[in-house]
Amino acid sequence: MIPVPGFEGQRVAVFGLGRSGITAARALHAGGAIPILWDDGVSGRMQAEAEGFAVEDLSRADWSQFAALVLSPGAPLTHPKPHWSVDKAKAAGVEIIGDIELFARAMARTPGTVRPKVIAITGTNGKSTTTALIGWVLKQAGLKVAVGGNIGIGVLALPAPAEVGVYVIEVSSYQLDLTTGFAPDVAILTNISPDHLDRHGGMEGYVAAKARIFAHAGLSLVGVDEEWGRGIAAALVGALTVSTGGTPADIQASDGRLRAEGETIDLAAARSLPGRHNAQNAAFAYAAARAVGVPHDAAVEGLMTFPGLAHRMEEVGRLGRVRFINDSKATNADAARQALSSYERSFWIAGGRAKAGGIDELEDLFPRVVEAFLIGESAGPFAARLGDTPHRISGDMASAVQAAAEAAAASGREAVVLLSPAAASFDQYPDFEARGEAFRAAVLNLGATPSGHG
Predict the structure, then answer these.
(1) Helices and strands: H and E segment counts in the chain
(2) How confident is the model at residue 308 (pLDDT cuts 50, 70, 90)?
(3) HSE of 364 in the Cβ direction (CA atoms, 13 Å)?
(4) What kind and span of H or E run contains 347?
(5) Which among 282, 320, 343 has a CA at the least distance from the CA of 129?
(6) What's the pLDDT band for 453 if we cut at 50, 70, 90?
(7) What is the pLDDT of residue 452?
(8) Is the pTM of this model over 0.90?
(9) Which residues contact 415 (CB under 8 A, 6 or more apart)?
């Protein structure tokens, strides 16, 4: 745990008792604060009480007595409308912050001689793979690394600074909206495409939230494949740019090669990094590793040995000539594009709770789809959008996997069954991880031989 100083003896309101909220309460208490907790759900309050925290109905509290409100990233700060706790805090002049800001303040008070480096990653897609990849490369190079934030372990539950050489942290737009002093040594924006627009009041608000990662950063690394990234990079001084296409950039990742610092790195041997998007992830990982002192050869070796990230282009099994790829983390069309474009032909399992635009922007990739197998709420609309592209409505995961496996085997050639839903999971599963595990289980139930990550 990372104790949070600065609120000694002061009451701090904590709303939202999911992973980040309860962890923030523990870190505040460890730093000497008096956290006062509340959640609209009974289970969160029960957990807090079981740990001995003060639980009070913040809707009836005297907000003049609070030094700050630590808001769960799941509670809206501005849109569609502010959460009631936000209104209460603002009316009382109480600052509103999140767990990343608490982490930033803890780092600011850590003596420079023992303060770890901080690498922070955000982006619409690719941030989890990039985060995991950076952590892997640094660990293989012998550094003491702690990986967390919006991926895996909550940031304040990571080991204390004295035990760490480098923190590698994934941060979401929701978390960035709640920061003011976050100052990573290396800040990365992988890419931007429309997402979470209801929570940011539109694309302008979403882009502004992502750009906050650079407000106090040391080295800025910016993906410039999209106009929004190019706009952000143009406003920064000394940023390094990364491109996977024709956009001029400091680091180029294309044609299976990474070009940086006058070096060309062939990524063909990196089995867990197929496709253009993974070349981009590798570019960010290489640049970040070099920025914190990892030698060139060690950084390259780390890229080549990366085992892959669960639920992101993860090969989960093989059955005869058929490979099964779990890309459950592709919860929007832009993420699914990365997977679909990585295979010349695929038997595509898609569907769930559709995001705005559905699969409209994937039309250029429909010719790569041998047949689509559609599940969840969006099965009907996706079927209509696919038009003449062969497809069938399977409804549930087990049926889709069975049908896709049979069709792929009947093709008589090497084939890929690809789960890349292009939709959220919440119609049938609590999260994309559960959806991915359902896919894995269905594949193994067919008698497939399990594969390692990658």
Answers:
(1) 15, 23
(2) confident
(3) 6
(4) strand 346-350
(5) 282
(6) very low
(7) 57
(8) no
(9) 321, 322, 323, 345, 346, 347, 370, 408, 409
Report the pLDDT averaged over residues 339-350: 94
How large a percentage of the chain has pLDDT more than 70?
99
Residue by residue, DSSP assigns 378-432 as THHHHHHHHTTS-EEEEESHHHHHHHHHHHHHHTTS-EEEEE--SEESTTTSSSH
**Placement of tokens 């949070």 in the chain:** 4
Which tokens hold the place of 90? 């603002």
pLDDT digits (tens, 9 = 90+) for 364-386: 999 999 999 999 999 999 999 99
Q: How far apart are CA 407 and CA 202, in angstroms?
A: 41
Please compute the mean of the pLDDT values over residues 22-48 and round it to a whole number. Answer: 95
- pLDDT surpassing 50 at residue 152: yes
From residue 361, alpha-carbon distances to 52, 382, 449 in Å are 50, 12, 34
Distances (CA, A) of 441 to 98, 103, 243, 372, 438: 36, 37, 37, 20, 5
Residue 53, token pair as written in the block: 């925290």
Here the tokens at position 33 are: 């604060």
95: left (phi over 0), alpha (psi -120 to 50) or beta: beta
